[in-house]
Hints:
The chain is an alpha/beta fold.
Amino acid sequence: MNPAQFDFETIRQTTARAMTRRALFGQAASGLGGLALASLLAGDSKVNAADASSQTRGIAGLPHHVPKAKNVIYLFQNGGPSHVDLFDYKPELARNRGIQIPDSVVGQARFSTMTSGQTARPCLPEISKFARHGQSGATVSDFMPHTAKITDELCFVKSMTTTQVNHAPAITFFLTGSEMPGRPSMGSWLTYGLGSESAELPGFVVMTSRDKEASCGQIFYDFYWSAGFLPSRYQGVKFRGGGDPVLYLSNPAGISREARRAMLNDLDRLNAMTLDRVHDPEISTRISQFEMAYRMQASVPELTDFSDEPENVLAEYGPDVRRAGSFAYNCLMARRLVERGTRFVQLLHAGWDQHRNLNTQLKVQCTDTDAPSAALVRDLKRRGLLDETLVIWGGEFGRTPFLQGKIEEMKSWGRDHHPYAFTIWMAGGGVKPGISYGSSDDFGFRAVTDPVGVHDLQATILHLLGIDHTRLTYRFQGRDFRLTDVHGNVVKGLLA
């Protein structure tokens, strides 16, 4: 039998007779929402405008103030880029090469198990060469020549600190505000609060990449983009690096788009009746996500088609830009996503964990990521998007100013994880361009001027998007939660 011929009123009456006492009280309390949704979906053979707009709305009353940014692209560098080799020039390390870093500097600092038992901690100067660039005079390593050319667009934060010394909890802390998995990620908070400007693409998209050498074994855990206790519709949608960006996006052989639409119409009605009966918010999510998937069948092929990109733009992103799943490809995809209204794009690139291969792998990482990162900033500016798009580049911590290993064994030089001072940069979206904010001590060991904690950074990001971080909350298990927990202050010195 054709599903379109089903008598939905008969189905509704049958399920109503089977309703439990508890479900009856539930329907009496909140059935109007389900009825409203059902009325939107019923009798419409196409995605109607009301349903499409419901995917884009945020919370009433947001933004709290006029936003500087509308979108975020977070270029997260998994593993911990070495600040003292890339951005934070410290001549004192060269003057003390091979000499034990003073105990007065180290204090009671803790490190990962890879150096916690290491008694010798010799100073190791930068393995690259530094120079000042732009009118800002920012110091940048010669490993990053493309980033060096855009320093006047960048806001360097050289006094970042965190509480974690291991990768997964440190990354989770940056992305969710908690070291423990289970909290909503930043992209989920933003799409929950502000919604999305696109009805054709997800509001929160995640893409991952790694160094071609697979030099470290870091895992991209799903909780890095989880919605946590928020409704699951706000979870990040992970785009894959090969085949369909999203699994099962293509119709099976023999299924036309019209047949898919007819099937979804019937499925929506069934789901709407179940929602009306049991009031599970995940059913509402299921309805909306089926509709989003249907629209993505048309929007994603256009999104991933780079044939309309000028050759000079593709060249800026580097030779890997056409290799799906590469960092360069993902950077260009990020620009195309925010162009089309995606609220939050989270790129994660692994390979920065140089414990025993600093002299070889650090430059490889810079080669893979430098040109695409700089090209993204230039591309956004050229298209008039940088002012409203906040770009963030950085990892979960830095690397130790002292050597992991022995000074005479140059081939196995490395640096351990370092949470006490490190550098990130930001661009566009209402931050001051051409500045370096905060500073570390003479050894690059501790943040000594204007330290910025993880919750401070998160509060500042939300502020730039028009949100008071203390007022974006969600009640769960009897408590109001927020991204910044009970911490965080907006870093006003970063604001344009």
